[in-house]
Task: structure prediction
Amino acid sequence: MRTFQKTAMFMLALVTIFSLVSCAPQPTPKAAGPVTIHVMTMDQAGLKPAEIDQIVKDFEAQNSDIKVVMEYVGYDNVHDKIVTGMAANPPGYDAAMIDVIWPDEFIKAGYMLDVTDRVTPEMKAGIFPASWNGVTRNGKIYGMPWLMDVKYFMYNKDMLQQAGFTDPPKTWEELVEQAKVIKSKGIAENPIIWSWNQKEGVVCDFAVLLFGNGGAFVDASGKPAFNDDKGVQILTWMKQTIDDGLSNPASISSDENAVEANFLAGKSAFAVNWLFQYSDSNDAAKSQIVGKAAFAPMPVFAAGAAAGVKGSSVDGSSSFAVMATTPYPDQTWKFLTYLASNEVQTKYSAEMLPIWQADFQGDALAKLEAATPSNPVTVPAFMGQFPYANERPTVPYYNEASAALQLAIQEALTGAKSPKDALDAAAAKWVELAK
Amino acid sequence: MTTTSQSLPKRHLSLRQQDARIAWLLLVPSLIVILGVTLWPVISTFILSFYNAPTGINQARTFVGLANYIEMLSDQTFWETIGRTVYFTVVSVGLELLLGLSVAQLIHSHPWGWQFMRFSLIIPWAVPTIVNGAMWRWIYSADFGALNGVLMQFGLIKHYVSWLSMPDMAMNLVIVADVWHTMPFVALILQAALATLPGELEEAAAVDGANAFQRFWYIRLPQLRPAILVALIVRTVDAFRVFDIVYIITAGGPAFKTITITYLTYLYSFSYGKQGTGAALSFLISIFTIIMAFVYIRFLYKPEENQ
Result:
């Protein structure tokens, strides 16, 4: 019995030691062999997972001391996975994709490593200033720019031709007129598809329309302005297009992937989406409208145009951050700089145009346009649309503010509230959050 | 040394005391694990619920007392969400019980192919909730969904309908997906209970002239009460905490009409970075589920049946 007691005591001591050791903070591991870094990004806009996997292979072939494990998740999951991943030490991810609307929150939370000293003068001068702005706060840089994207207006050339139109609409009012004809001729039951589900996509589309009507999210003093007459007009317009059957009612439950599926199935004449939709539209495995999709400058409202608005879109750029608590900041930064390098970005420019300014000038522009079959179309579209990209508010509480606006838009679209009441409620929430 | 050992009389433990000591020693590792992975997080979350605790590394936490609870309990969105969650729970569990009992009765009557039927029941239940949610989202898809296809085939609709864009419809569609997934669990529990019931009482009642409904209502159903209680408690607690199927099918939309209380907790904790509020919501969920379990036990549990 005594031997048994001793054995039991020994087991108890062992378990206690293991428990305490496992609860203790992890020491910084030393890189003895190849270091493994974990990188998370979205499986939506930008490069396809297969393309990034190929980039990783090429990187690993050149850097035998670094192994990269990629994790692809839906865009809507990235933010929350970063939050949960950073609760661990070392963190769940050494680097993660950061949307243009998150840096204020994540810098405040201490998640993003200050990489100011790592950025070379060549990088600083070579990459578009707009890209650096997305990851720069108070003069410090917190990430490596990666993707410059805006929302584009795309249309189905065949459908417009069948309806008797030679040119795409220049204003949203023209779009409504064209959509009515397309609908009346039975070419498409609901000619317009949007990503108006209760996610960030609806705020992006709202921004496109709001700025196109001469409106803004906030006024000069930082107070909400999206509930003014211009904001109410566009939300009323959005609801009206659904009531008239011009906008697909499924827009209310569609994200950008659903928009693409609908447009590529030939069910819509018009769609507003990110760049990735174009190359997919010419992929016969996914698309029934191969060769029929085309870009046009994003329409604006007649009132906006009269007030001097020449174009409108929303910035959907993103970057990669080295997570602040990673034990491998050097290796992670090395991979991110490779991922964002001019050479790699030009090679994979079919769905994601380079962030390097020089690529859009002189001989390099011709080279870029020849890099992939999509580029002769996407490069001019990007150059025409990006200058009109507008920013969403850069505040640490953006997610909650955005959720309030998403709710307001959906309440108006589903008839639960009038556009004015819904936007006023969202504006009141923004004021409360700002306190 | 000798003097000292003589001055301390050795304490003799009885065999029972020795057994108890060994038992405790053997239990300690398990207790440490339970304390570490269950009790400590619960205590830690409870403490967190009294703080303003933004997400982030080394973020300052401010003690706010009951402010998080008061904020939620006085928030209209919270009560609307509770109402929505109760609706989901009552309708979902109610349907599961009715359908589960019907299916269990059917299998118990041993019709042709009953063994295959019982085996088939496991399939929906075995499907991971995420997969189930994705499957039903496609079924409900406005453009490509099977639901629209079937209804069009039967001439019940003239145009494809965007079901998930309809605020009054979306929650009911989530309920249908949930019932399909979890009804087999209820059916299997009740079918197992039915298999253990003695048949003599019903035979005697039949001889005395009781019809089928009377035999079911007065004899079979009371005997099934303990199994129904177990199924109801397990399913109610689960349904009240529903999250994943909502997240996949509707993401809380349209217009927050399918946001449930666990979803709201998730939003506050991770999307809005308000961990203190999220922790308070977690405890409010616990209180509500305990109340519901208490109500079930109070009305359905009859101690004499277990004697």
About this structure: Chain A touches chain B through 49 residues (CB under 8 Å). Chain A has two domains: 35-149+316-387, 152-314+397-434. The longest strand of chain A covers residues 35-42.
